[in-house]
Amino acid sequence: MAMDPFSQLILTISVTSFLTFQWLFHKVSPWMSMRISPGFLSLSDKQKVEWNSRTVSTFHALLVGIFCLHILFFDDAVNEDPVWGDPTLVKTNVAITTGYLISDLLLIFYYWKAIGDKFFVVHHLAALYAYYYVLGEGMLPYFANFRLLAEFSTPCVNQRWFFEVLGYPKSSRPNMANGVAMAVVFFMVRIAVMPVYYSRMYAVYGTEAFYLVPWGGRVAWICSSICLDIMNIMWMHKIARGCYKVLRSAHRNKAGTPQENGKTD
């Protein structure tokens, strides 16, 4: 069976994305990092692997996040019919992410001692399973795109790790600014959007369009959404607590109260 030209294009985008992210990891990130941050050279090999992995992750998050916003605001077909609307742009975005996830999985397995994490493997595989329905069947483009909005919180999470590994104290200005930004962005793109997402899901539930989605697609969509959001709520709680602690200790320091143990964690 011959592939239609659009499917071929999507496959090409995924493969190109995979190769690009490999190139960014192996060549571009080390080259750029040495020039931007001299501290990169003094990191251990394990830390360099994670550094490059996070640099690529930040680039992917910004690229896909901006594309997401464009679709959310300007792609009428998808916004009017969230289950079966013309998924051209969403498929392109999901294809980029698919290439990234496969590239990242490969790196996780190859550098397991440095960046191996069972949780990330499960996360990536669950996402790929859900994206199969978007890319293969063209289903649920609005919801797939909406989930990708969450990527906007990734750069702040990565930046926190960069500061930590470069030895910035937790109470330093850049670290605190990033911490607050992380809490705010995480809340906006993962928590505050939940009512919008689930009200669209509820509006579609039980309609003809809903029943045209095969059982596996419904499971991938509804169960993965709920599981991801339970994790998001747990993470938000941790981030908010961490943010509050650091701000409170910084305030104490400013007020001139001596810290009992010097720890701001």
TrEMBL record:
Protein's membrane topology: Multi-pass membrane protein
Subcellular location: Membrane
The keyword Secreted is annotated on this UniProt entry: no
InterPro entries (UniProt xref): TLC-dom, TLCD
Protein's GO biological process: lipid homeostasis
One cellular component (GO) term of this entry: endoplasmic reticulum
Ranges of residues in domain TLC: 46-248
Membrane spanning stretches: 6-25, 56-74, 94-112, 179-198
The keyword Membrane is assigned to this record: yes
Keywords per UniProt: Membrane, Transmembrane, Transmembrane helix
SMART domains reported for this sequence: TLC (SM00724)
Protein name as catalogued: TLC domain containing 4
Organism: Seriola lalandi dorsalis
